[in-house]
Amino acid sequence: MDQLIQVVEAAQERQDLPEIRPGDTIKMQLRVIEGEKERLQAYEGVIISDSGAGTNRTITVRKISNGVGVERIIPLNSPNIESIEVRKYGKTRRAKLSYLRKRTGKAALRVKERKVSAPAGK
Q1: Considering its fold, how many domains does the chain have in total?
Q2: Taking residues 82-99, what's their average pLDDT?
Q3: Does 76 have pLDDT greater than 80?
Q4: According to the model, what pLDDT value does residue 59 have?
Q5: Is-contact 46 100, C-beta < 8 A?
Q6: What InterPro entries is this protein classified in?
């Protein structure tokens, strides 16, 4: 039974998303439905948490909007995610970056940058 669940989840998991980790700064396009209309909304911030696995994987993205910290928990397998683009790759020593919540201003989003080699063939 457990193997059957794994097979079904693997078939339903999204494959078009980039590899992301806590500390990365991402820009995502989210599909928002307002009444009859549908539009794309950009959301850019730092990943401060990553939890779950497979189809249940979620990330917490934090941004500063008008001086106020805004966090959003987003299921990565959601059909409302149009695209995710990694702006900066962050280098951290923690899996959960909850200490960023105490910071203000530019320091609230400052994470050391890690070097990433370009994918082969590009």
Answers
A1: 1
A2: 91
A3: yes
A4: 94
A5: yes
A6: Ribosomal_bL19, Ribosomal_bL19_CS, Ribosomal_bL19_sf, Translation_prot_SH3-like_sf
Category of 35 on φ-ψ map: left (φ > 0), alpha (ψ -120 to 50) or beta:
left
pLDDT in tens, 22-31: 999 999 999 9
Write the CATH number for 52: 2.30.30.790
> Which pLDDT belongs to residue 44?
94
79 near 99, Cβ under 8 Å? no
Range of the domain at 14: 2-107
Q: What is the DSSP string of the chain?
A: -HHHHHHHHHHHS--SSPP--TT-EEEEEEEEEETTEEEEEEEEEEEEEEE--GGG-EEEEEEEETTEEEEEEEETT-TTEEEEEEEE-B--S-S--GGGGG--GGGGG--PBPP-PPPTT-
Report pLDDT digits (tens) over 30-47. 999 999 999 999 999 999
The answer to the question of residue 16 being in a domain is yes
Is 69 inside a domain boundary?
yes
Note whether residue 120 is domain-resident: no
Residue 75 in domain: yes
